[in-house]
Automatic annotation (TrEMBL):
InterPro entries: MetI-like (IPR000515), MetI-like_sf (IPR035906). Pfam families: BPD_transp_1. This is Spermidine/putrescine ABC transporter permease. Coiled coil: none annotated. It comes from the Bacteria. GO terms for cellular component: plasma membrane. Residues 70-261 form the ABC transmembrane type-1 domain. The chain crosses the membrane at residues 12-35, 69-93, 105-126, 138-161, 182-208, 214-233, 245-265. Belongs to the binding-protein-dependent transport system permease family.
Amino acid sequence: MIRDTTIGSKLWAAAVWTVVGFFVVNLLAMIATVVTSSFATRWLGTWLPIGWTTRWYSSAWSEFQLGDVLLVTFQVVGAVVLISGVLGVTAAYALARRDFAGKRLLVLLFLLPLLIPPITFGIPLATVLYRTGLAGTFWGVVAANLVPTVPFVILVMIPFIEQIDPKIEAAARVFGANTFKLFIHVLLPLLLPGILAALLLVLVRTIAMFELTFLVAGPTSQTLVVALYYAVFAAGVRAVQSIDAMAVVYMVTTLIWLIIALRFVNPTQIVTRAKQQPAH
C-alpha cells in the first residue's frame, strides 16, 4: 500500500485532526465545567471556585428524588432491552429465513422509526397512548421506547442470522432437536455476539432517549434524562450547582452502564463475525 504524501493529503489530514482535536477539547471542557460546578460552594467571575463542597449531591438527591428516578430508569432500560431482544430476534429470524410477498415493504417500515426524528412520530404515538390510558405509566414509557428499539434489533440481527448456514439447523432437526432445543443449543451460541452487541446499543439509546419518554412519562415514570430536563426548565429557582450535580449523576450512571455492558460484549463483534464467517 502506497501512502499518499502530497501536500493536499497532508493538509486534509491536518484539517481533520484539528477539527477532531477542537471537538474533544470542547467536550472535555464542558464536562470539566459541569463537574467542577457540582463541587463548588460559589463560582462567579473566577477561574476556580472559592470553595469546595459535596452538599449539592445530597441536596440534588433529596430535591429531585434521584433514588426513585434511578430505580425507574433501571427498570425501564431493563424492560426495553429484554422485550426488544425477545421480539427483535424472533422477528429477525422469521424475516431472514422466510420469503413472502411484501417482505421488502415490511423491512422498509421497520426502517422508518430509525430514519424519522422521534418527535415526528412521538406526538401521534403519545396521543394513542393517552387515549388507551398507558401514557403516564411505566408500561407506557416502555411501549414508547420499544417503537424504535425493536426495529433496530431486527435490522441488526437479520444479516447476522443470514450468515448462518440453514444446513446447520437442518442437521440439528435430523438428530431430533425440537425448535426450543435448536434455538438454545445451536442458534443462540452463534447469535449471542450479535444479540449482545445489538442490546448494548439499545441500552445506550434507551438511557439517552428524551423525546419519546418526555412525551409519555408521568410524575412516577420519568427516566433520569427527563427528570434532568425538568430540573433545568421547570418553574422555580434552583441552585445551578444542584442541577450540575444531577447532570454528573446522569453521566456517571450512563458510564457505569456502558462499562458493565462492555465487560460482556464488544460492539465490533458483529463486524468481526461477518468477516470471519465466509472462511468457514
